[in-house]
Design a protein that fits this description.
Radius of gyration: 19 Å
Mean pLDDT: 89
Shape: globular
Strand content: under 5%
Helix content: 55-70%
Structural class: mainly alpha
Low-confidence stretches: 293-298
Strand order of the largest sheet: 1-2
Order of helices and strands: HHHHHHHEEHHHHHHH
Largest sheet: 2 strands, antiparallel
Number of strands: 2
Distance between the termini: 42 Å
Length: 298
């Protein structure tokens, strides 16, 4: 039962609409209706953990943490810096990423495959040479594998810390297995399917990671100079602090983001819980998928 006063409902609606517009973009309402309202088979049923994780407000923190972690691979960062337009159009990049996650998680199997095919065609055109003279190609399965494991690890860390319904051990493994289906479709070879494999794969990449000038510049832009009005800066600062706190200690060190005192870390975590609760309150859950049409009676 909704116990909010009319003014309370109005505040929630305004805040929810503002957040949704930032994340989903001008085509958000249309995309949402198509993703959740189109009948047909899905890659993931309503009981799958990927729906629980990707539908939770903790993704706001996990997504930002993933960007920071992903930047530590020089080839991945070079591709982002040269081709993604994250500085000129950061919100557009966020909106494209969030739409892809929504389509592959909740959309019909046909729409999910179409989204994957589009991303793969874009990746085929993204290639170049870093300032150090190393060549890169976004479609490289090894590079795709890094982007995938950094993302999955960050999303799961955020959900387990700030999610409304953290997963149990079996649920965590099932989430990683769910994401492996999307990763395989994108061209990742043998993506991890449980926590042990995810941890091992992250460790395998450690020798390749370093904070290039591009990575440090991206971190400064993301954490200190977000393209936001001043009124939105305080909650974003809480989001950014919690995104940093989620990073593995070695990643913080490489990015020059030293941890604070125990008291400060606890305060940061409290702010993260408050922030995700507020986002969860403001954004209404998506509508249930439309039922498949019944066959005509003979």
């Amino acid at each position: 039962m909704d116990t909010l006063t009319p003014s309370g409902r109005s505040l929630r609606e305004r805040l929810g609409a503002s957040l949704f517009a930032r994340v989903a973009g001008p085509a958000g309402p249309e995309n949402r209706a198509r993703i959740h309202g189109t009948p047909g088979p899905r890659w993931f049923g309503p009981e799958r953990p990927i729906r629980t994780v990707h539908g939770d407000a903790s993704m706001f923190i996990g997504g930002l943490s993933a960007l920071l972690l992903q930047s530590l691979h020089p080839l991945a960062m070079a591709a982002v810096a040269a081709h993604s337009g994250f500085r000129g159009d950061p919100w557009g990049r966020l909106q494209r990423t969030s739409t892809f996650l929504a389509v592959t998680t909740y959309g019909t199997a046909q729409d999910a495959q179409r989204a994957v095919d589009h991303v793969r065609s874009v990746h085929e055109r993204v290639r170049g040479i870093t300032a150090a003279g190393e060549s890169y190609q976004a479609a490289d399965p090894h590079l795709l594998g890094w982007v995938h494991v950094a993302e999955v690890d960050s999303f799961l860390r955020a959900h387990q810390r700030f999610g409304a319904h953290p997963l149990d051990a079996a649920g965590c493994d099932a989430y990683i297995a769910d994401t492996a289906r999307v990763a395989t479709a994108l061209g990742v070879l043998d993506p991890p399917r449980d926590r042990a494999a995810l941890a091992a794969r992250l460790a395998d990449y450690r020798t390749e990671l370093r904070a290039t000038p591009e990575a440090l510049d991206a971190a400064r832009f993301i954490l200190r100079h977000p393209p936001l009005p001043w009124v939105a800066r305080p909650p974003y600062a809480a989001l950014a602090a919690n995104a940093v706190s989620l990073l593995p200690p070695w990643a913080r060190v490489q990015l020059g983001l030293r941890g604070g005192s125990v008291v400060r870390e606890k305060c940061v975590r409290v702010s993260g819980h408050a922030l995700t609760r507020t986002i969860r309150w403001a954004i209404a859950p998506p509508p249930a998928p439309a039922p498949a049409p019944r066959p005509a009676s003979p």
